[in-house]
Amino acid sequence: MNQKQENIKNHSHHHDCGHCHETEHEYMHESDHSHHDHNDSHCHHGSCACDHEHPHPHTERTISGAVKFKVANLDCANCAQKVENAIKKADGVEDAALNFSSSLLFVKIRHAVDLQDLQKQLQNIANEAEPGVLITPYDHKEATNDETHHVQTRELLRLAIALVLFVFGIVMAEKLFFAAALIVSGFPVVIKALRNLWHREWFDENFLMTIAAFGAFVIGEWAEGSAVMVFYEIGELFQSYAVNRSRRSISSLMDIRAEYANVLKDGREIRLSPEEAAIGDIMVIRPGERVALDGILIQGETSLDTSALSGESLPREVEAGDEILAGSVNLNGLIQVRVTREFAQSSVSRILELVENAGSKKAPVEKFITKFARIYTPLVVGSALLVLLLPMLLLDNALFDQWLYRALTFLVVSCPCALVVSVPLGLFAGIGGAGRQGILVKGGNYLEALDTVDTVVFDKTGTLTKGSFTVSGIYSSKLTEAELLELGAYGEAYSNHPIAKSISTAYGKPIQKERISDFEEISGRGIHCKMDQKELYLGNHKLMEQLQLPYETNTPIGTIIHIAADSVYLGYIVINDEIKEHSRQAIQELKKMGVSQCIMLSGDRNEVAQVVGKELGMDAVYAQLLPEQKVEKVEELMRDHHGRLAFVGDGINDAPVLARADIGVAMGGIGSDAAIEAADVVLMKDDPIALAQAVQISKRTKRILRQNIIFSLAVKGAVLLLTVFGLSTMWMGVFADVGVTLLAVMNSMRALKA
After folding, report:
1. Winning range, highest mean pLDDT, from 14-23, 312-321, 497-506, 703-712
2. DSSP of 586-608
3. CB count, 10 Å around CB of 81?
4. Which domain holds residue 289?
5. d(CA 577, CA 468)
6. Active site residue 459
7. Of residues 204, 459, 673, 737, which has the active-site annotation?
8. What is the tens place of the pLDDT at every residue in 436-473?
9. Structural domains of the chain, count
10. What is the CATH number of the domain that holds 574?
11. Where are the alpha helices (DSSP H) in 497-649?
12. In terms of C-beta density within 10 A (0-12 exposed, 13-18 middle, 19 or more buried), how is residue 241 classed?
């Protein structure tokens, strides 16, 4: 179990008053958390083209301070790696990462440079490494799509001509047409093969297809040699279309960025891009418009559709003073919002950045497929040579042409495209599907890890409970409930503590503060004031003991506020933190999905925590813990249990624990910097049932990936076996390569609906 690297600046504040002696109130002000298990594991079908060693496995390729570009016409993880390696070697480039799943290129440059010049430089490099790839500035999305469509149309026309020539060859039985079809369809493949040979990439799929096609011509199989190249290229075009469409489908789910912001300037309303708006600007948002930046509602009231952020379908009612997050949609009222964060720091910007970078964090299954492809392809090529040579040496009647044909079919089958394309795309689709449910997963490695979680540790307040106190009981033998509640509300009138507010809320009437005088807080005990000239005391048992008043000790579980007036004990009010509606269901669902232990940590006094834990069905409860003690307890649990441990907290006061756990899960933390930075998974709706949904999505995605791996290897293995016995053709070899890839890509997209 590897310890994550963390750099946490933690400041804890302990509020000490008579109300909250049972509960520790911690506030996390700042968190900086990162995971840096670095590696340079590449996705080559064959060997790595870069000239360096790879001593450590690579889990993250997120580059801070990088310029972002959109990449088009990239339908192969191997191609993406070649372009990335070439860009890394360019002058002035400090680092680069090309995410195949999201088609995004991150380039960190050493010195300031004109972006247009940088783009041209990168485009030239990409053309040299992988012809046809387009690199455009990130915000020029439509131009990129137009270019992609233009390239696909040109390719479709070229392959249509090749197909017509191939059909003429069959109808007229003329070798010249087969040769022409091969040249028209295979020219780009041959060029790529020669370029890759120059870079010592011997087992590139272009090289394999070139050898197979021309080898078929050598032994007189003109029709099949031509068919291999024509249908391989047609399959590649369809594969490119399927992959690009899949990417667009995933990206569109997270496209929650507003196109513009209507801002008031000098009494006039002007339209700006979200990046141009500044903190303090007043946005005017009409019904149906998407909120462009985070802010505070200052005028009007409305309902907001926050489903794009939280996955919650019910509208959220807001009024003046409420916080509004970018990405929400205004449903009915005309409102004005004062901007509180620039676009780069807004919730929507951080969400998009998380999703874009998610493809950079490779899951173990991706790294396995990468290593497997490096071994598998040379192994199959070696087997093809054996298929050719062994019969010639061992069989007296072996025909060279016959066994060469079988060996060439081996080469056609050998490319593991179905795996190296569908696996990262499936993980990316799973991340997109989770996003639809309001679950942000920071990488494929975390999505896969959720499937293997054995122990889940929950913080109590704000995670399993609402974190908002409510009056759950009023007990008095001398006064009515209404009379005792009135004394409590007036006694707490000058306090801003959540418990005081809960009593005021329960009272529900205006407070006439002129009735109150001589208000004072008694440290660690409670409050004293005069109300209508009566000496009023509210606080814990220590205050009653100080006053030497007999008080009720047989009280229900909860925070107890004892009340006395003029040296007479009058009764007590019970305050409790309400359990969230789906907390118990979430625990049950996790147990059904294979989680062996659900544990609760709390700063509350033990009696309160044990009651909540018992009601929720927890396996263990640890109470009265300070923030540093929570970290120690999690580390102890990680030592004692061999499976993965996930910690679920509110993302603000639990950042150190979120960072320390195998998987940190932040609840309802979309507005919290601590949640975004410290957690590996962010549940944007404040509901623990979302964790069960996240685990379910992880299991579904893993199941789809396993299907792709088993199906791809089974089909290829079957075709290879049939080839040895002369029962397959190159046509079947093409299906085993391109056809299986298309089916695997389409199957991967099912993860989007998780």
Report:
1. 703-712
2. HHHHHHHTT--EEEEE-SS-HHH
3. 24
4. 261-348
5. 6
6. yes
7. 459
8. 788 888 888 889 899 999 999 998 877 898 877 889 89
9. 2
10. 3.40.1110.10
11. 498-507, 541-546, 583-592, 606-616, 627-640
12. middle
